[in-house]
Structures are given as structure tokens and as C-alpha cells.
Write a structure and sequence with these properties.
The structure is a homodimer of 110-residue chains. With 110 residues, chain A is of the alpha+beta class. The first copy, chain A, folds into 2 domains: 69 residues, Arc Repressor Mutant, subunit A (Orthogonal Bundle); 32 residues, no CATH class. Chain A is built from 6 helices and 3 strands, in the order H-H-E-H-H-E-E-H-H. Chain A has a 3-stranded antiparallel sheet. Chains A and B meet through helix 1, helix 2, helix 5 and helix 6 of A and helix 1, helix 2, helix 5 and helix 6 of B. Chain A binds a DNA duplex (30 and 30 nucleotides) through helix 4.
DNA sequence: TTGACATGCAACCAAATAGTTGCCTATAAG
DNA sequence: CTTATAGGCAACTATTTGGTTGCATGTCAA
């Protein structure tokens, strides 16, 4: 759990443009900066800044391919928050479910 | 789902002080402003502003009792986000669980 | 009624944020 | 080699944010 910074994740998720970028990456993973810019009412530099913030929060990882920078969504921090923060508030209703979930995860292997 | 504003919820959750206030309310629900201030390195007015933001995001509801304002945590918006945003990223692993969860919720009544 | 207590309201301030523009670097293609 | 393309870096700006101080209002208790 090294480099896991809840605060950075929450702050990254606080901006609608960044959530939109994550949505776009969810629809099609591995897009370049240029592709992610298309159709947005923002300069490329603004988008790049948002992506940098998502990268810093470890919500997006990148991979260079020649002069292109491919962006991949990373679900780990979101799951992490869901685990240790959000589930807290549904523990009462879902306590029974929690054990089952762990069991299923262990079963599916990843 | 009236008044349900994802953006306000995400922005409210982005601040560590506000998350701390939610944690405190989780530990003991129905605290007054004064109680919530104790031990925090902030003025009462600063805390009041944070609580107002949490109220506006519908994460906290209040109830006046004489001259005291009691604060109660409201888990609905957090569950909402978990449902339609966060679960998205764990759908693959948990798709089987989703139906069961709905079934359990329907079963328990609230 | 008077004083203490719980909270609200408003003005103000510093720092962070989201965005811009302009220019630089590196890779690919003709 | 030259040019177009993909992206990075830095300076600057306006707005939002988190916090402060000072004062006003409403409620309980003596």
C-alpha cells in the first residue's frame, strides 16, 4: 500500500472534468492526450494538467509509445477508498455481504 | 433522487477536515457544532462553514433543539456515489454480487 | 430582566485551483 | 534535412477556497 494517498485521490475526484476524463478512459482505455482532448472545451494544456493530477493520485498510469503518451485507468485507488471509507457507511446493511465479497474475490483469483 | 448532486458530494468529500467531521459524526451521531469543534485547530466559524458545505451536499442533516443544532450523518449520497460511480470500476469482479445486494436491500426494508 | 451560551452573518485575506498563452523538445514522415 | 505532429514547461490571470475577525441574533437559566 505504498504511495496510497487518500487525500490526493479524493481531491482528484473532486473535479468534474477529471471525472469525465476517467469516464472516457473507462469507455476506451489507453487513449493519447490528443484523443482525450477531442470534443472538450479546454486547451490541450488544461487537459494535460488534469491528467497529471490523476496520475499523481495514481488513478491513471501512462505508457510512452514513441511520441505518444497512452493513458490507462487504474481502479486500485478507487477500490481502496470504497473499501476503507465508503463501505464504512453501509456496513450495517451490508455486513453479511462483506465476507461473501472477499470470498468471491479470493475465488476469481485477481 | 431529487436534489442529488454528485458534484457537490465529491467536492464536499475532497477536504480532509470535512472527512474528519464525517468520521466524528460516524463515531457519535447528533453532535452539536460546539461538540464538533472540540479538539480541532480551527475556529468555530470555520467548522460551521465546513458543516454547511456537508449540509448542502446532503451528507449531513441537522435538527434544531432549542438553541442547539444537532448534526446527523446521511449515508444516502455516499451510497449513491458508490452505486453509480465507484462500483463501475469493480463491475467485472463484482457483477454477480450486484443482484444479490439489491435483493438483500429489498429484503431488509430500508 | 439580565447575563451567559450556541449559533449565524458579513467582510476580509491568503493560498490554491483551473484555466489561458507562448514557446521549447522530441519523434515520425516525406 | 525539413516539416508536421505529440507532448512538455513556464509565466500569468481570475476565481474559488479555507480560514480569520468582529458583531448580531436567539435561547436558556438565575
Amino acid at each position: 500500500m505504498i504511495g496510497m494517498n487518500d487525500d490526493a485521490v479524493f481531491r482528484a475526484l473532486a473535479d468534474a472534468s477529471r471525472r469525465q476524463l476517467l469516464d472516457r478512459l473507462y469507455d476506451q482505455n489507453g487513449q493519447t492526450l490528443g484523443e482525450l482532448c477531442q470534443g472538450l472545451e479546454m486547451t490541450r494544456q488544461a487537459v494535460a494538467k488534469h491528467l497529471a493530477i490523476l496520475e499523481e493520485a495514481n488513478l491513471v498510469s501512462v505508457q510512452w509509445q514513441g511520441r505518444e503518451k497512452l493513458h490507462f485507468i487504474n481502479p486500485v485507488p478507487i477500490n481502496h477508498i470504497a473499501e476503507r471509507w465508503i463501505n464504512k457507511f453501509e456496513r450495517r446493511q451490508l455486513s453479511a455481504l462483506s465476507a461473501l465479497k472477499k470470498a468471491l474475490e479470493g475465488d476469481s483469483g485477481q
